[in-house]
Automatic annotation (TrEMBL):
Residues 211-255 form the Flagellar basal-body/hook protein C-terminal domain. This is Flagellar basal-body rod protein FlgG. It comes from Clostridium algifaecis. The lineage of its organism: Bacteria, Bacillati, Bacillota, Clostridia, Eubacteriales. Its main location: other. InterPro entries: Flag_bb_rod_N, Flagellar_basal_body_rod_CS, Flagellar_FlgE/F/G, Flg_bb/hook_C_dom, FlgE/F/G-like, LlgE_F_G-like_D1. PANTHER family: FLAGELLAR BASAL-BODY ROD PROTEIN FLGG (PTHR30435:SF19), FLAGELLAR PROTEIN (PTHR30435).
Length: 258
């Protein structure tokens, strides 16, 4: 009886984590560059019933085992690319391929992001929606030039050209960075990531940058709604099992008191 209660409780906790990931995905379905998350499930300890004191069929071909329920392990992020939406805004960028933009946070800490809904601040820096400075490797010839919202163009390889009279001067380059391992990035909020300790970060020259486009969230609402229904039904089933166990305990206690 106690094991049945424990199995139901552990299963309910696991399904609650699943529902948390689904609700987070649905809430960010319209967030630029957001990558959906999922959770992995793992069985808890199993033990065999084929031992002294248990009436088992010795001729059975399949061993009888009893489990302790399930639990969730790590959260897995889906890194598949979202669809690209054309905005025709010069400060909007989308990465076509694997990788991230590199930005500098307050305190000179470095982070990475897929969201390319940038702007140019008063100092002429390209910044993200939170004011973090986007890395542009400056060219010597571009020193002294200041970016505005409409005086520059960026080609597919990230080279930034600024208008200087009737000519386009090379201002710098926006690099795309990637990491080895799908689960090597840790979310720190605000759609930003930092690599796990020991993770190798490298410049990905195979990815392209599209100016005037934004990458949409890769959340599939149909999948999320289906998973939510399944998780709710599993949660409800284990809740009923827990209620039934509680009623059985109550019946046993009432019989003992007579």
């Amino acid at each position: 009886m106690l094991r049945a209660i424990w199995n139901s409780v552990s299963a309910m906790n696991a399904q609650q984590n699943k529902l948390d990931s689904i609700s987070n995905n649905i809430a960010n379905a319209s967030t630029v560059g957001y990558k959906s998350e999922d959770v992995n499930f793992q069985d808890l300890m199993y033990e065999t019933l084929n031992r002294a004191g248990y009436p088992v069929n010795s001729s059975a071909t399949t061993p009888l085992i009893s489990g302790d329920g399930t639990k969730t392990t790590e959260w897995i992020r889906n890194t598949e690319q979202g669809s690209l939406l054309e905005t025709n805004k010069k400060t909007d960028f989308a990465i076509d391929g694997q990788g991230f933009f590199r930005v500098t946070l307050p305190g000179s800490k470095v982070a990475y992001e897929r969201a390319g809904d940038f702007n140019v601040d008063k100092a002429g820096n390209l910044v993200d929606s939170n004011g973090n400075k986007v890395e542009i490797i400056r060219n010597a010839a571009g020193n002294g030039q200041i970016l505005t919202n409409d005086n520059f163009v960026v080609n597919s390889k990230g080279y930034v050209y600024i208008k200087n009279g009737n000519q386009d001067m090379l201002y710098g380059k926006i690099n795309v960075y990637n990491v080895i391992g799908q689960d090597s990035m840790i979310s720190i909020g605000d759609n930003l990531y930092t690599p796990k300790q020991g993770t190798q970060v490298y410049q990905n020259n195979n990815a392209n940058i599209n100016q005037g486009y934004l990458e949409q969230s890769n959340v599939d609402m149909g999948t999320e709604m289906t998973d939510m229904i399944l998780a709710q039904r599993a949660f409800e089933l284990n809740s009923k099992a827990l209620t039934t166990s509680d009623e059985m305990w109550g019946l046993i206690n009432s019989m003992k008191s007579r």
